[in-house]
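Pilot study result, target chain (305 residues):
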Amino acid sequence: MVPQELPSKLLVIGSGAIGIEFASFYNDMGSEVTVVEMMDRIVPVEDADVSACLEKALVKQGMTIMTGAGVEKLDVTASGVKAAIKGKDGKVVTSDFSHVIVAVGIVPNTENIGLEALGVKAERGIIAIDDYGRTNVKGVWAIGDVTPGPWLAHKASHEGVIAAESIAKELGNKDVHPHAMDRRNIPGCTYCHPQVASVGLTEAKAKEAGHEVKAGTFPFIGNGKAIALGEPEGFIKTVFDAKTGELLGAHMVGAEVTELIQGYVVGKTLETTEAELMATVFPHPTLSEMMHESVLAAYGRALHI
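Predicted structure:
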């Protein structure tokens, strides 16, 4: 986390949020960065269109992206690390790197804390809880990265509030009214360049879940504020249930989308439909206008493209 020198040639294994954030940071700092991802696209939990746009942007910035690839072997050398990387064509190529970051996921730090002795239910170290933070053992509660994902700071903080209020209620406080955690409405943000943000179902996941879908996309290049900021790269996509108009998901890549996503999070929490979003006045000139245009685009009514 605190290297003694700037990596000259960095290998990042894994292209989830953590891997891509480190890769983007060091690339911006001048390191020669290679990302290896076993899946067929980077940030694989995001919408496929977001993955494609982000990869194009990162490659344009000078990064090497290898998808459908895996690291077969790592050997520490006097000057750094030698990596044997198997590409999607099946060929193994050996390359030298000054540093390697392994970002293939996280595991909960729950070893040897007494879960077994208490009989707390856990799977692969992840503590099972209900929507209020209760474990299966009375009086034992859990929040944050030791519980099921997504493993995000804002999710952990919100779980803490819910659990504290639920505990207070169980102790007899009648002035608290805890609400259940709805994991469908937790935003995900990746602080790379360009940024990535999302909430809810991707277009593909919505279809897999049986929804008839209406999806709309609006590009940054069609927004005056984005052009004025010198950030014309990216887009906003919204996904709706075609029958009910329910907002199923929103997916963004571009400048400051980690700020914009909260508008859709509020909308999903309020169970909004396309009708309310279409009737909402968005200020001009702002990046947020693209959110409106994306909704309109889903129904063939975009104004500025």
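One observation from the pilot: Residues 153-170 form the longest helix (18 residues). A full batch analysis is planned for the follow-on phase.
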